[in-house]
Amino acid sequence: MPQPKKHADVNARMKAYRARLKTRPKPPEPAKTKPGKARWRALQAQAQAALEALRDELQEHFDERSEPWQEGERGQEAQERIDAVEAALEALEGAPEL
After folding, report:
1. Dist. CA 7–CA 11, nearest whole Å
2. Would you tell me how many other CB atoms lie within 10 Å of the CB of residue 69?
3. 89: domain range?
4. Which residues contact 8 (CB under 8 A, 6 or more apart)?
5. How does residue 68 score in pLDDT terms, banded at 50, 70 and 90?
6. Residue 5 falls inside a structural domain
7. Cβ–Cβ contacts within 10 Å for residue 85, how many?
8. Does residue 67 sit within a domain?
9. How far is the C-alpha of 21 from the C-alpha of 27, rounded, in Å?
10. Do 51 and 90 form a contact (C-beta atoms < 8 A)?
11. Can you tell me the distance from the alpha carbon of 57 to that of 10, in angstroms, rounded to the nearest whole number?
12. CB of 29 within 8 A of CB of 42?
């Protein structure tokens, strides 16, 4: 059974997508300096922000699907991807202080 449409047309869907993008926090810009701790901290923060955004988007996609889809093969693959991103986030958070 197909899921009901959330948006009237493609333009409405893109408008909603752009609105969601505006609400997400922007990753910090890397420092424009020589390689060093300040630049590496900025890059680490940027990587963490990107992984968090990816995790949130994957989780939102997973949650929007039907229960049979979530329990099926595709749902299990999606959950494995979410788990892998969460593991990467945990590894990044557990990394030594720069």
Report:
1. 9
2. 14
3. 47-98
4. none
5. very high
6. no
7. 19
8. yes
9. 12
10. no
11. 19
12. yes
Nearest alpha carbon to residue 90 among 41, 60, 55: 55
Q: Tell me the pLDDT of the chain averaged across its residues.
A: 89
Q: How many domains does the chain have?
A: 1
Q: Classify residue 95 by its DSSP letter.
A: S
**Is 83 within a domain?**
yes
DSSP the chain: -PPPPSSSSHHHHHHHHHHHHHHSPPPPPPP-SSSSHHHHHHHHHHHHHHHHHHHHHHHHHHHHS-HHHHHSHHHHHHHHHHHHHHHHHHHHHTSPP-
Among candidate residues 83, 79, 60, the one with its CA nearest the CA of residue 71: 79
Residue 67 CA: distances (Å) to CA of 63, 71, 72, 76: 9, 6, 8, 11
pLDDT score at 33: 67
Evaluate whether residue 95 is within a structural domain: yes
Secondary structure class of 27 (helix, strand, coil): coil
Q: For residue 79, what are its two tokens? A: 């959950």
Q: Whole-model pTM above 0.90? A: no
